[in-house]
Amino acid sequence: MPQDPRRNHFSSLSPHGFHRVVYFEWGEAANPAVVICVHGVGRNARDFEILADALSSSHRVISVDMPGRGESEWLADPNDYAFPTYLTTLTALIARSGADKVGWVGTSMGGLLGIALAAQPSTPIDRLVVNDVGPTIEPAALERIRGYFGTDPTFATYSEIAQYVRTISAPFGLTDDAQWDRVVHTNVRQRADGRWGLGYDPGIAVPFRARAAPPDLWPLWDRIRCPTLVLRGALSDLLSSATAKEMAARGPRPEVLAIAGVGHAPMLMTSDQIDPIVRFFRS
Predict the structure, then answer these.
(1) Burial class for 109, CB neighbours closer than 10 Å (0-12, 13-18, 19+)
(2) Containing domain of residue 266, as a range?
(3) Is 105 part of any domain?
(4) Could you read off the pLDDT of 146-169 as tens digits, one per residue?
């Protein structure tokens, strides 16, 4: 079992005031070698527990609940669930880490945020892992996610919501009940009326539904110079093989690793997904 992380928090700023951000930390508290992990649009910090445990002997790993997810505070205005707020949050998190340079692991939304930060002049990101996302996002995947994201269903029992999560998350490609139990347990909450719901503010979907596709990110990708690793679910409907191939030929010219039998997105729970990341940060 992964070690229990340290739980911390700080205040960050959105256009409508400050909000509490919770993050989790593994490894020696004084270790200056830091890796920051950022989850996908509807997930949370606990997605990285197994990876963090694997890296914790050599790195301090910090995984954040982005605003409106997990244990972090919901924002007053759902329109603030957007990149400017997220980038402010992550800049504060990097400062809070005390590290001058950090590694980055970003899944889906977290990967896009990593691309945006790694492309900036004097960026603190010195190694970047992008998990199943790229400068071009396939419209079919956005339509699939739009079909369920932010609908806020509730269920009478835990077993009912567990089955729902398995259904909408089928592309994760998980292979056993223990993996599914972890994915479900870390992303659902029992509400005051006893019913079960997903562990995020449904308002996070408001900007997504208004404009799901990000702008053209190829200019940002072309400015990245740090060592970069791209993971792609071989069955992904969000990061196409054509886009992954172009990513390999441009910008940081990363290694691109396809994960067999997995769609969007690899959950970083198995050795074939974790070991290449560990080697990347220890090389």
Answers:
(1) buried
(2) 6-139+217-282
(3) yes
(4) 888 888 999 999 999 999 999 999
